[in-house]
Request: fold
Amino acid sequence: MSVELPPFHPPVNGADRCPVASVSKDPEAAYASDLERLKALRAVPEEEGKQTFYLGTRMSKLAMVQTNLVKAALEKEWPDVDVRIYGMTTSGDNNQSQPLYLMGGKALWTKELEVALIEGQVDAIVHSLKDVPTEFPPGCELGAVLEREDPSDALVVKEGLSYTSLEEMPDGSVIGTSSVRRVAQLRRRFPKLKFADVRGLVQTRLRKLDDPTSSYTALILASAGLIRLGLGHRITAAVTSPVLYHAVGQGAIGVEMRIGDERAKEIVGSLECWRTGWQCRAERSMLKVLEGGCSVPVGVESSLVELALPGSPPPQATFLSGAPRPHNRAEDPHAATITLHGTVTSLSGTSSVIASITRNVYSIADAEALGADIAAELIAGGGREILEELEGMSRRCMERMGPRCPSRVMGGRRLISRLLLRGRGGAAWASS
Reply:
């Protein structure tokens, strides 16, 4: 089947001239710097009567803010533990000059951290859960999911412009995002808008947006990141379903640990928010089935209502209002009704499949089974054709370009789905 994709516009009018975004760091130099920083961190004497616990994370401001939230929570729960933060640069940080769709999958933000974890340089690593692949490397697992911040996507309009929604924007307005999921879904609703890649830290992206020489009208960013950075005032409006379903795990912080590390399991596990954990694990299970090891434009929305279990302990009172609240210990027995909505959208935005399931669940395994079931419904309801279209694009790329094909280098559909958004050659691959 021939598929013509509208062009994906590169950054324009000097919008990508920021030095941070135009120069790729030397990975070897960055790694050497990381090792020196870790050496200095480990040279600090332990506090008397305390054990040290090392958290690894990216060096970005948002990653540090999130890791400090984890550190504060751990030290409150474990006053005899001295939590130290070890910041590292990742592949995604080292290369700020290329669009994400040219660089592979989510492991861009995790693989260097996971090497440090596996080698025992750190005891656990902190992630934005939406950036974590559904398959962990051997020896690693998800140790805890913290309570979720607002999972929605946010519209951030250029300073000085009065638009309050995407619907108000004139044809040809340029919307900045590096997410294939957002582009695919928004193209379906707003075919006359243009979408351009934008890279860098959140603050860098905002500078690019507000630069008078740039042609960006607005950006789409995760609400949670803006809120955690104290930039919630820049949110013009939340963009939610049915216009835009958010990413799997968006708004949640995940802590990864080594399998079999009982000390880390006890310490990290104390932070688990079972409600968020069940929802996110259902979402991730859905994505794992749909991906098949590759990236696809998948959106989700989930909700959870707690159910009372016979013989469960009485609710505790909150400190402020005195209103009853249920127990939140992850190891306590729980029951809940989870509603999960999932969607798969073609890269062109011309077709989309949506499925929903509401079910009572009583364990993580139940939540994951729910996610797998909704993935099956999506595939049966038309998602198979969308996934096969991506697979066909990948195959034709491999046939035409041989070993030079980015899809072959980066693995299956993972890169081709992003590469097609450039608009240069994508339509030719799709129609051959």
DSSP finds 14 helices and 15 strands in the chain. The chain has three domains: 26-88+99-145+256-272, 153-239, 273-432.
